[in-house]
Design brief:
homodimer, Arc Repressor Mutant, subunit A, 2 domains, elongated, alpha+beta, DNA-binding, disordered N terminus, 8 helices, 28% helix, Chorismate lyase, 3-stranded antiparallel sheet
DNA sequence: AAGTGGTCTAGACCACTAC
DNA sequence: TAGTGGTCTAGACCACTTG
């Protein structure tokens, strides 16, 4: 075919044509040349410009829709999106990896462990019926000699019965669960609290020190798997998130 | 064509065929039926199964690659990805929207405003050469009668000269920037700090109260746009993030 | 060497919607 | 109603990688 020889295998071969179209249009948008709300060329115009078929242009523009950079309306055309809510991708690293990133040796200790039926105090933390069997764990993570993070976790033993007999010697409860139990949904709540006496004691900080708390609940197919509250000494820790374009 | 009549316009018409293929494969993966590392059917096999052309299957699998659910290797086939790092999507709402979500009336006040050349103290906060013109703003956001969040912002006037004369009457500086300046990269740091006297005074809280701090820096094409530090009274605020599968 | 995915085409029909 | 995007096809060639 003519188009294939003319543009599809163009000398700048390394990138495919639809990738080049994506990059070109993206460049026009982020540079401000095509500002939010502007109409970008119709598919047919881009076909002429790049000397390719409509499918190729359509594929490229489809990716830009997925990326949230443009919106398309039949008969009207394609328009540069107006940014709506920004979304940051917060990577949830394993605590071992967080400590390793600091260049410090990592270890953890299980400081409390109890198998029990879910009590009323648990029900606010994990999405269970009263009386369901749970495993309650407390765990302290160290970076070098210093406590790095205190963990308070509930595991739903109906969903993960193997946890009852797992010693958690090599892998921390979090790492063990991630490796073993696929999750389909989860929720985070991130906040700041003044360290209560008990937390201050285990973390080796003064009472009242600001701490970053991360509460994470995980479900698989609607069934609660685990709920964990992580407490980091505030001065010693920052969550770092990388932005992604509107999505 | 035979395929088009048989499956393309099937009775379950509402979703397109490639969307249905995406949903089907995604279901097999998240349900665990196709565990991480498993090979999924070849394109040709899926073509037979759905009675469609290779392009349609290819489009669907391409989306799953983008979503990080599968990886594809020529000659070998397509495989369910092994989860790497978990990532939570943290939605960065406009503060007005956050307050509105609480059902409270929103307003903000600009409490300080200065145009100056970047000083050494600024350079740690924003990615600029010394002497570059910046706009320094302090802003207080209210939920009802109570202070909700204190904002301390620097704007690079080389990148956004219009900010110099913008009164920020209708839109807060953050909302104004989001609407006006497309960003290409940004970074967040989330931490906890004990309220210093100045912050405690403006937020109406006791000195030492744990506060959630969010530091956000934004760039466009490598040029710093703005840097903002938001301080929320810790007890009054939680960041909520929703999990997404591996990405 | 064979088989897979990666890409592209030229055309088609349809649905939606702006005019 | 006309024009746009949404979707799909049947075939083709290529590049890569595994066996």
């Amino acid at each position: 075919m003519e188009g294939a020889n003319e543009a599809g295998r163009a000398p700048r071969a390394t990138a495919s044509l639809h990738q080049r179209i994506v990059a070109d249009v993206e460049g026009k948008i982020v540079s401000g040349e095509w500002p939010p709300g502007a109409r970008i060329p119709f598919e047919i115009e881009l076909c002429d410009f790049y000397g390719c078929s409509r499918m190729t242009v359509n594929k490229a523009l489809g990716r830009l829709v997925d990326a949230g950079l443009i919106e398309r309306r039949r008969k009207a055309g394609s328009f540069v999106s107006r940014p709506r809510s920004q979304a940051a991708v917060l990577e949830i690293h394993d605590i071992r990896a967080e400590v390793a990133a600091l260049g410090l040796p990592y270890r953890f200790e299980i400081t409390a462990r109890a198998r029990r039926s879910a009590r009323s105090v648990d029900l606010g933390r994990i999405d269970l019926a009263g009386g369901a069997p749970v495993l309650a764990l407390r765990c302290l993570h160290f970076a070098g000699e210093r406590p790095f993070c205190a963990e308070d976790r509930l595991i739903n033993l109906s969903a993960v019965p193997e946890a009852a007999t797992e010693p958690f010697e090599d892998l921390s409860p979090g790492a063990w669960l991630v490796a073993r139990v696929p999750w389909t949904d989860a929720q985070h709540r991130i906040g700041a609290t003044n360290a209560a006496r008990a937390v201050a004691a285990v973390l080796g900080i003064d009472v009242g020190t600001a701490c970053l708390t991360i509460e994470r609940r995980t479900w698989r197919a609607g069934e609660a798997i685990t709920s964990v509250e992580l407490t980091y000494p505030g001065a010693a820790h920052r969550l770092v998130a990388r932005f992604t374009p509107t999505s």
